[in-house]
Amino acid sequence: MQPPTALNAAFAAGDTAAVIAETLAMDGATTVIDIGCGHGGLAKALTARGFQITGVDPGEAAIDAARAAAPEATFTVAPGEKLPFADHSFDAAVFLNSLHHVPEAHMLDALGEAARVTRTGGTVLVIEPLAEGPFFEIVRPIHDETDIRGAAARAVADACRDGRFALRGNVVYERKERFADVDALIRRVVSVDPARAATVEAKRAEVERLFEANAAKDEGANIFAQPLRVYWLRKL
Predict the structure, then answer these.
(1) SS3 of residue 135 by DSSP
(2) Structural domain boundaries of the chain?
(3) Residue 53: beta bridge partners?
(4) How far is CA 198 from CA 29, 136, 201, 206, 217, in A?
(5) Confidence (pTM)
(6) pLDDT over 60 at 203, yes or no
(7) Does the domain spanning 5-130+144-176+228-235 belong to CATH 3.90.226.10?
(8) Quick one: which of 224, 217, 222 has its CA closest to 137?
(9) CA distance 117 to 91
């Protein structure tokens, strides 16, 4: 994969929304399904760039937040492994940090659903955080996702081996996470899953130690790298 200038710049900047937008634009995609859309951050960024976005997430609260964040997009409560759309409904599908949140037994089903609702020759992007890097090491005592992230990578490989997709590219790049202090990081971690609050309190001393040990300082901010892998797939 030899990315053109704009995509290469997006990788270098760690700008995930730009990575996705540039890749989709290269492939001529306009209609996109955001699978595991969460609170709508990606949908907001892509609609601002002119894409027609449909977001799905199994959480009703997440969908409510997404509708507020990106009113130009369309949102539906649904799990990734059971999409309520007809075959070939979209030019492209995106999983942004979401495949590893699908139950492991259904990850391949979710990729199959992405293939089903994407037109033949269309694009499926899967972007997953790797189980490594400073940010991962800080969060690991609270919630260690080593195994589940590995399962997501295997599911992508299996979906390519069974003929659903052709792998067009596989690139690792770094996103920089910025926090004013350890409390800001903890608020982020708990906002993703409020059930983590009790674990955070029990592990707070260790999290604080890791925060200080892994932080790169920049103008008062604490910066932590998180490597991400993007799988650029073509629907067969």
Answers:
(1) helix
(2) 5-130+144-176+228-235
(3) 32
(4) 43, 19, 5, 14, 29
(5) 0.94
(6) yes
(7) no
(8) 224
(9) 9
